[in-house]
Structure formats: C-alpha cells, structure tokens
Amino acid sequence: MITRLPTWVWLGAASLAMVAGMVNVVGYLGFEHQAITHLTGTTSLLGASLAHGDLRASTHLLLIVFAFVGGAVLSGAIIQDSTLRLGRRYGVALAIEAGLLVAAVPLFERQQIAGAALAAMACGLQNAMTATYSGALVRTSHLTGMFTDLGVFLGHRLRGVPAEPRRLWLCLAIIGGFLLGGIVGALLFPHLSYRTLYVPAALTGTAGLAYVAYRLHRGPAGTLSP
Q1: What is the DSSP letter of 52?
Q2: Is the separation of the CB atoms in 128 and 70 below 8 Å?
Q3: What is d(CA 56, CA 124) in angstroms, rounded to the nearest whole number?
Q4: Would you say which domain of life the source belongs to (predicted)?
Q5: Domains in the chain: how many in total?
Q6: For position 193, which CATH number holds?
Q7: Residue 160 belongs to some domain of the structure
Q8: DSSP 87
Q9: How far is CA 121 from the centre of its chain?
Q10: Crossing angle, helix 198-218 and helix 165-192, to 10 degrees?
Q11: Which range of residues forms the domain containing residue 90?
C-alpha cells in the first residue's frame, strides 16, 4: 500500500506520462498512423498482417515490437532493478530517451519506419524505467493499468473496503498527464509536424537533469519506500 509519495515521484510520473502522450499522438498522426507507446494494438495488427500475408506491414510491425522490447532491455541494463529508488541511474536513461526521440525526427521526416522504431525504443526504455513503488505498479507509457486501478479503487469504495487515496491520485496524475500530452501534441503537429518530438525530448532531458539535481541534493542513495 502506498503511504507516502515523494515529490519527485509525483512530478516524474505525470511528466513522463505527458511525454508518452505526445509521442503517441505523433505516431497516430504520422504517415504510418501507428501507436508507439504500447504494443497491444500493434500486436493485434501484426496478427492481422500475418494472417493476410502482408509482408511489408508485418515487417514494420515486428520492427516496432522489437524496438520497444530493445528499449526495455536497455533500461534493465542501465537501472538493474524494478523498484523505484533514489540513486538509480534514471538520469542516464532519460538522457538516452531524449536522444532517441531527437534522432527519430529526421527519419520520420523522410517517412522511414526507423523513426517510429526509435520512438518506440524510447518508450520501451521509459516504460521499463518506471516500474514499482511501495508494491504498486507505476507505468507511464500506457493507461490500461491506470484505468484498471482506478476502477478497482472505486469498486472498493462502493463496497466500503479501505482504499488508499494516494493510489487514486497517482492514477489520475498519470492519466491526466498522458491526456494533456496528447492534446498538446495534436495542437503542435499541424505546425511542427514531426519536429513536435523535440518537445517531449526537451521535457525528458529536463526531467533527467532535475532528477540528477534532486539526487545530489538528497545525498546518498536510498530506498524511498515507507
């Protein structure tokens, strides 16, 4: 049960959800109209493409899947733990994510699927980087789990079962951040096109610097769980 949430967890979760929302809407509005931040729909499309023998689409979709998983592998190699701890190398991971998003822009502009693959790798890295805190699952690149937790919380309250309100607010912060990112990305895309990705890249880089500064301010690394 979550009994305490440090400020950096609140700000980090909402900010990274906003980043994911912007990246995903760029994928939907782009030339492939492809989801980037999660793999559920991508896997369904892959199944349909394989069933119809569409080699080109299947290859592109497989590339997105492998890139997302590759980002998660990279995160695991850098952070080496699934529990949120002050002192983990999140700053390094966020810097790499920002670099991947920046590198994706020129590839997207040339309508190359490698642009979507780099963006998917960035999202896979981010999603693996934010894993668990005080026994609660924290994901920032998709909302299925957040909406599920929200429904469970409301169901518990309807039955009079004790429920932790901070979990509710964490879910709402992530959902709100993702939605806001989608709105901002959709408003910017007609003007900036794929250069819209520079905005989440800047946000990610800034979050990484803020984390490093906070970590240095707090001193030695330690578990933040209550």
Answers
A1: T
A2: no
A3: 23
A4: Bacteria
A5: 1
A6: 1.20.1250
A7: yes
A8: T
A9: 10
A10: 140
A11: 10-213
